[in-house]
């Protein structure tokens, strides 16, 4: 598991680079470090290996999820040039924390032992707690960090208690060992196992912002600096769903009849709360928070309808969602800084008024992003939802499929509010300026969204 080692070492190197008088090298160094980790990830392609005393597993699925996480991190870091320009910022610490959080994300994706899952969750979470409160002069950021930390600590405790109960029932922390116990005792599974499953799911569903464990999400997304919100909504969610899929598809597939009904109910609740609440938001950032909740609901459909197509659907959807979300937050970061209101940065919908006239590129990038998140054809988001809905159809869970389609129509309304503001409303006269490298990242994310929308079969057969 070379990426974990490299990212850990690179994070320490970045901390020492913080002593340099010039900050210019920090951003390119971080990007090179992430690319190096990404390159080494594919060294194990087509193979299955166990590392670190059989506690981490590498296979093609883990590599694909790791690739999505590292690609998302690369794009988010590439949008962080404002840290270099800000004399008060400490980019070395921020970049180091981002790299350390990636170590936790990869552990969550590749764990073979539940102890390693817990370690990965903690490494990722602690880094995000700090980054959520990185804007020390903002009361919103301080509130976000405190709320995220307190609620995250409770969720982690619940998850750890669930892991302890699973060990008490099965005598092992190994996911394949738990699977063997379930199949061996098909008619006499311990009550501790069922209790452990519920508590473990509660802890993990908190991490992916699924209802009713979502209450932290709007305030934390709203208060966290926009760059780290983009990181949180993509990397953390991808790692969380990769971990959920692994534990449900391996350890608990033998007791599918026990947990699928509960997960289906939570899926519908997540879709309902996420989509309906997003409709009446005035802040774009809070709308994206509830959008994140709704997309957690769509991904939960794939887990509820666990089957042969679930792996490909989760990978494709995670990639499509990450590209669109990074594009959206990338445009927001530029617009909110250059169109400030009396309270500082403007993160409301009216900040996008007339954007397509002042900067057609930003308008197009944001439009493609919103269309993809809404699941409109010719974008990656459409095929992501199609694959997720197909898993439900294959499993015969048509009622959840109908409900999800209805919620998707609600989503179209609030995503199109941004497009209407950009193309059909009058805004500020001055143009919105974008740095060249920043522009290239947004263009790359948009092109990938359109290419996957036109040729979704590019990822077929990789899983």
Automatic annotation (TrEMBL):
Could you tell me which InterPro entries the record lists for this protein? Answer: NADH-Q_OxRdtase_suN/2, ND/Mrp_TM
EC assignment: 7.1.1.-
Q: Which UniProt keywords apply?
A: Cell membrane, Membrane, NAD, Quinone, Translocase, Transmembrane, Transmembrane helix, Transport
Q: What is its main location?
A: membrane
Domain (NADH:quinone oxidoreductase/Mrp antiporter transmembrane) spans 113-408
| Localization annotation | Cell membrane; Endomembrane system; Membrane
Q: One GO molecular function term?
A: NADH dehydrogenase (ubiquinone) activity
Alphabetical GO CC annotations of the entry are: endomembrane system; plasma membrane
Q: Which residues cross the membrane?
A: 24-42, 62-80, 92-109, 115-133, 145-167, 187-206, 227-252, 258-280, 287-308, 314-335, 361-384, 396-416, 437-459
Provide the membrane topology annotation: Multi-pass membrane protein
Q: Which reaction does it catalyse?
A: a quinone + NADH + 5 H(+)(in) = a quinol + NAD(+) + 4 H(+)(out)
One of its GO biological process terms is: ATP synthesis coupled electron transport
Q: Which NCBIfam families match?
A: NDH_I_N
The record ties this protein, via PANTHER family, to:
NADH DEHYDROGENASE (PTHR22773)
Subunit-structure text: NDH-1 is composed of 14 different subunits. Subunits NuoA, H, J, K, L, M, N constitute the membrane sector of the complex.
User: What family does the entry list?
Assistant: Belongs to the complex I subunit 2 family.
Q: What's its job?
A: NDH-1 shuttles electrons from NADH, via FMN and iron-sulfur (Fe-S) centers, to quinones in the respiratory chain. The immediate electron acceptor for the enzyme in this species is believed to be a menaquinone. Couples the redox reaction to proton translocation (for every two electrons transferred, four hydrogen ions are translocated across the cytoplasmic membrane), and thus conserves the redox energy in a proton gradient.
- The entry's protein name is NADH-quinone oxidoreductase subunit N
Query: What species does this protein belong to?
Result: Arsenicibacter rosenii
The major lineage groups are: Bacteria, Pseudomonadati, Bacteroidota, Cytophagia, Cytophagales
